[in-house]
Amino acid sequence: MGAEPVVEYAIDARLLPVNRRLEATQVMTWRNGTQAQANTLRFHLYYNAFRGPDTTFMRENGLRRFRIREDGEMHRYGGIDVLEVRRIGGGNLTSRIAFIAPDDGNTQDRTVMEIPLEKPVPPGGQVRLRIRFRLNIPEIFARTGSWRDFFFLGQWFPKIGVFQADGTWHCHQFHAHSEFFADFGTYRVAVTLPAEFVVGATGNPVSAVPHPDGTVTRTFAQDRIHDFAWTAWPRFSRHQRNVEVPGRDRPVKVVLLLDPRHGDAKERYFNSLVFAMRFLSAKLFPYPYDRITLVDPPLPAMGSGGMEYPTLITVGHFSLLPQGIHATEMTTIHEFGHQYWYGLIASDEFREAWLDEGVTTFFESEIMDAYFKEKHSLVDLPLIRIGDGEIHRVGLNRITLVERVNQPAWHFLSGANYSNHVYNRAAVFIDTLKGYLGKEKLYDFFAQYARRYAWRHPGTADFMATLKDVSRQDLQWAFDQFINGTSRLDLAVDSLSSRRRNDDPERYCNEVLLVRREGYFPAEVLIRLRNGREVRHLWKDRGRWKRLQFTHESPLQSVTIDPDFLIPLDHDLINNSKAVQPSPRKHRRLAARLGFLFQTLLGMLFM
Amino acid sequence: MKAIHAFLHSFRGRTARVSLYAWMANLFFSLLAYLGLNRLLACTLGDSLLLENSQLYGSFSVWMEMIRHGEAGMRLLLFELGLLALVFGLFSVFLSGGIYGCFISGKSTGLRDFLRQGWNAFPGFIKLFFTCWLVWIPALAVCLVGFLLLAGVLRDSGNETAFRWLAVVWGGLTLLLAGYSLAVYDFARIQRLGGVKKTWESFRAGMGFVSRHAGAILLLYILFLVPFLLLFPLTSVLDSFTTSLPLIPLLLVFQVAIWLRYFLKTVLMHAETRLVFSQSPVASGGS
């Protein structure tokens, strides 16, 4: 499994917590694995998204007025300054640095740095650079930054883009709704900071060297990953467990860095994470790294919560929520799912975000439903029960303008449209494929896809090709409509009728009209007759309508499309069924209950 | 002991009878809700089997489908019900006039007398109603603003434990304030019918009475609240046991539950009048 590492990073960083700064030197070796010559290098400087109100990230987020908080204080901006770039064995490249904005031409955006090389990197060749940089750490609101003495450093170092086979760079600006994409590589990061800080990071700890000035240098290393994040806070309460995972010859170290005020969440974090790890290890392949670190940020730094990095995830817990709301478990399971769908099967989060977010969201529901009870898995309170998958279907139905799921993240109309497509529509689509192919077949596909593309960068075409291999079915028609196209799906029972035959009054002419209001998906139709008999019919022809006519001794009772609810992608559930003589009993009982509720409220007003 | 005595001696036919009037008014105002909700659900669902399939889809999904499809009708109905609740709130001032009037005058609890008492008491009671709101809204607003400010500070400090305690303390204070203001409102109305003519004086007399007899009143409220609150879980247990019950018996069960709540409230009102007039032999009228 997996391709050769393309890049090696060795970073020496010093955190200056009082000044909220970080000074670092990075030695990077990059190999050109393509057949094209690289005349320039491009780097992501993600931290510059927080440089001011006019960056592309701030503009797209609608945060141009962000600098003034509600209480009138100034928000702290941040940014990264590249102080020096030297080619090892070559010259000083600092003066060649240019900032480019390949996506939107925003001259105020400095999240992509280009360095023309005096000597190109030939195919198969490599380049080593020494980069000195400084971070001004912003106040946390989106993933990275600091709050008081809590620090979370994500997307914090100059990170080389991906050089593509056609000789161009895949190095997009930092957008409001896009995440990240990079080559696999080896990371060795040494952080020097005051000794009282508890530190968590991607990878494994290698050493901790104390210094006479009260600081300590902690070094972490990990190979076959594509990003590195770390956190430091003196108040973290650190917990560690060794977890046996089937298929591994040694246990995985699970490290939890907990806000000490979240003691009630400790077991919830551990238990849900271990469940998710064992679930995905059994269904896909065993979790391959020796360690996973969970970071539970304090409430005011929650902007860093709910995010995935290789072998490190940030979660989130709010003590005021009742235990029956499983947000803590949901976040843990979702972010751990990204260890596979992003971390290992490293699809392009910029251009095809559905491949990691949609698949992870689908697995989140699968794991939540297995961990808790289906239809209760997200909320299980005395009067309110919500399944995790139900929430995704609600998100899908909130889409007012359907866009292509498979498009660059910054092309979506809005943040809500991005998340409702990339997370919800994609997850519900996969759930619908589960109904169509069967759970076993779909899981078999995911296992093969995951093994085939572990430590690689698959795209939608690879996903579809593997699906075709495993299912032996061409599902292009489904992807064309719901992933690469803008169709909704709405199957409906238009009408049904029964009349006695003129020539044989003991028998009935039964007629059902089914219509495809939008989209196409084969569906089973359940026809119930008044004498209790049931007939199932597979409606798979592609016409906009289908008239079913048959003669029977019994008239029709009702018709239901998709009686086993295997097509959650269907936009409208109300028109999926019809009865000849609908019994008002259920409506009336519900109206009676709601009326009683109102009557009780009126009773409360009587004073 | 006076409170217990007053409460226990208020379970009587007169109390039950006036509580029936209050329940009937409630039912009358609720009819629109019953009919409107029935119409709305029928229009939204048509001849679909959505509700029959709620186990399959999940109850949350079913609700979301109904809300999505019936949104326009639901908004209109919610507006109508909100308006209805407002009118009923004012009408309840009239009802309480009838109830207190019957208890204090000691006259018949027949419908005609009830209506007459309500009519006579209404102008004074409505003034008291607004006076109480005018006094207590700023008090509640101060509490709320204080809470929000403190919550903002605690949120920025990240101290969730303190945040939780703040919520508990604020909830307790709000309940106390609400209980106190309701007691003042009740006893101000009794004072008004007992002979205090001016609104503000009635209000002050109510406050004075509540302050002087805080212990007895608290006991009285506990005696009322325990069975009153028990009715809620009891009703939901009954509701869950009646899934196979036909609609009419189900509605009857609901109405009995509603009437019981009114009965307990009128028992409390009767006990309040007994408590007042047991302290003041001159004004002793009533039952």
SSE layout and pairing:
The complex is a heterodimer of chains A (607) and B (287).
Chain A: E1 7-16, E2 21-31, E3 38-44, H1 56-60, E4 79-87, E5 98-99, E6 112-121, E7 126-136, E8 145-147, E9 150-153, E10 159-160, E11 162-163, E12 169-170, E13 185-194, E14 198-201, E15 204-210, E16 215-225, E17 230-233, E18 237-243, E19 252-258, H2 266-283, E20 291-295, E21 307-309, E22 312-314, H3 327-344, H4 354-371, E23 379-380, E24 385-386, H5 388-397, H6 415-437, H7 439-453, H8 460-471, H9 476-482, E25 490-500, E26 508-518, E27 523-529, E28 534-539, E29 545-552, E30 556-561, E31 577-579, H10 585-605
Parallel strand pairs in A: 1-13, 19-20, 20-22
Antiparallel strand pairs in A: 1-2, 2-7, 3-6, 3-10, 4-7, 5-6, 8-9, 9-17, 11-12, 13-16, 14-17, 15-16, 18-19, 21-22, 23-24, 25-26, 26-29, 27-28, 27-30, 30-31
Helix pairs in contact in A: 2-3, 3-4, 4-6, 5-6, 6-7, 7-8
Chain B: H1 2-8, H2 13-45, H3 54-57, H4 59-69, H5 71-105, H6 111-157, H7 160-193, H8 199-212, H9 214-241, H10 247-279
Helix pairs in contact in B: 1-9, 1-10, 2-5, 2-10, 5-6, 5-10, 6-7, 6-8, 7-8, 7-10, 9-10
Report on the structure:
The complex is a heterodimer of chains A (607) and B (287). Chain A has ten helices and 31 strands. Chain A is α+β, with helices and mostly antiparallel strands. In chain A, helix 3 packs across helix 4, helix 5 crosses helix 6 (415-437) and helix 7 crosses helix 8 (460-471). The model of chain A has no long low-confidence stretch (mean pLDDT 94). The longest helix of chain B has 47 residues, at 111-157. Chain B has one domain (13-280). Chain B has ten helices and no strands. Helices cover 86% and strands 0% of the residues of chain B. Chain B has helices at 2-8, 13-45, 54-57, 59-69, 71-105, 111-157, 160-193, 199-212, 214-241, 247-279. The interface between A and B is large, with 59 and 65 residues.
